[in-house]
Write a structure and sequence with these properties.
The protein is α/β, with parallel strands linked by helices. It has two domains: 191 residues, D-Maltodextrin-Binding Protein, domain 2, CATH 3.40.190.150; 119 residues, Periplasmic binding protein-like II (D-Maltodextrin-Binding Protein, domain 2, 3-Layer(aba) Sandwich). The protein has twelve helices and twelve strands. The strands form two sheets. Strands 1-9-8-10-7-11 form a six-stranded mixed beta sheet, sandwiched between helices. Strand 8, helix 7 and strand 9 form a beta-alpha-beta unit. Helix 1 crosses helix 10 and helix 1 packs antiparallel against helix 11. The longest helix is centred in the C-terminal third of the chain and has 22 residues. The chain is globular and about 60 Å long. It starts with a strand and ends in a 5-residue tail after the last helix.
Length: 331
């Protein structure tokens, strides 16, 4: 079946990079010369979503712990490839990092003919923050409360399914429904979650999948209804919404996993990678980090450098064949 995917131009324009200044007296910098100047954190999705929120909150801790300002620079586009390519070309001196999603480094190599970077050769992954449960929701106009009924509805009605990026977990999930149940849903891809939820609220999408906090305003207003947790466990914020497996959808394509990737240019000195990995891990227990994680329903601590590199290989071995099997054509 031909792949049915629409790319939507971003709605949310981000302005100049926002600097995170210290809210408390600077803590004495760790021994050594790093960091010797401000740090730039390139977020390859727009402001307003999970990737951006965690980057801002965790960077506050990095700034306080090192005494150096951390600049958040949102560079969305091409499902994260534009921002990633910028960091791949940056000096490997420990002052430029990428905060992204694992799909940028894994799925995108299958989804795009050219990336502008080599995920394996151009980056080292510093840390990975498990992205938690990303519920599947439908617009209030769609009269279903579970996945089985949604499949039945999609067989006889036009359905646009939102994905925050080409090749994302949401894209894989929706395309798997198309392939396995003979559906013809249109998968609409965005430059991040924020514009996707804007369209969902306006009613131009019938279904989407993403972080609970980013969709929270729509949930509270009753504009969307959660119908499944495509994960091993239910979402903390939505304990009454069953997982895909609990609803009889046992294929691995309907149980997603991944993390928010903190990455650096590949030649970044190992001692700097280790220091930043430790800072990022500790940031989860800082006040801004803890609050941000709670708001998004994240409960797992970040994976540190050695752990995330092992999991990176695991995800590549499972997700890449899965995408290839779905027959998604590279753009």
């Amino acid at each position: 079946m031909p792949n049915s995917t629409t790319t939507r131009r971003g709605l949310l324009r981000t302005g100049a990079a926002v600097g995170l200044t210290l809210s408390a007296p600077s803590i004495v910098r760790a021994q050594g010369t790093w960091p010797s100047k401000q740090i730039t954190m390139v977020v390859n999705f727009p402001a307003g979503g999970l990737t951006d929120g965690i980057a801002r909150a965790f960077s506050q801790h990095v700034s306080q712990a090192t005494g150096q300002q951390v600049i958040i620079d949102n560079k969305p586009g091409a499902s994260g490839n534009i921002g990633a390519a910028m960091v791949a070309r940056a000096p490997a001196d420990g002052h430029t990092f990428l905060h992204s999603v694992s799909s940028t480094l894994i799925q995108n190599r299958v989804m795009f003919k050219t990336l502008g970077f080599d995920p394996d050769k151009d980056f080292t992954i510093v840390s990975g923050t498990p992205s938690g449960v990303l519920p599947v929701v439908v617009h209030k106009s769609v009269p279903v409360t579970n996945l089985k009924d949604f499949v039945g509805y999609a067989r006889t009605n036009k359905v646009n399914f939102g994905s925050w990026a080409l090749g994302s977990s949401a894209h894989i999930f929706a395309q798997a429904l198309n392939e396995k149940y003979g559906l013809k849903m249109e998968i609409v891809t965005y430059k991040g979650e924020a514009p996707m939820w804007q369209d969902m609220g306006a009613g131009s999408l019938q279904a989407a999948m993403g972080s609970p906090q980013a969709m929270n305003a729509l949930l509270v207003k009753g504009d969307v209804r959660a119908i499944a947790a495509p994960s091993k466990v239910r979402a903390v914020q939505l304990p009454d919404v069953p997982t895909s497996r609990e609803q009889g959808f046992d294929d691995d394509s309907f149980t997603v996993s991944g993390w928010l990737a903190l990455a650096a240019p590949a030649a970044t000195p190992k001692d700097i990678v280790k220091k930043m990995s430790d800072l990022w891990f500790a940031a989860a227990d800082s006040e801004p980090g803890r609050k941000m994680m709670q708001s998004f329903g994240l409960v797992e601590k970040p994976l540190q450098h050695e752990e995330v590199m092992v999991d990176y290989e695991r995800l590549k071995s499972t997700l890449i064949p899965r995408i290839v099997a779905l027959g998604l054509k590279p753009e």
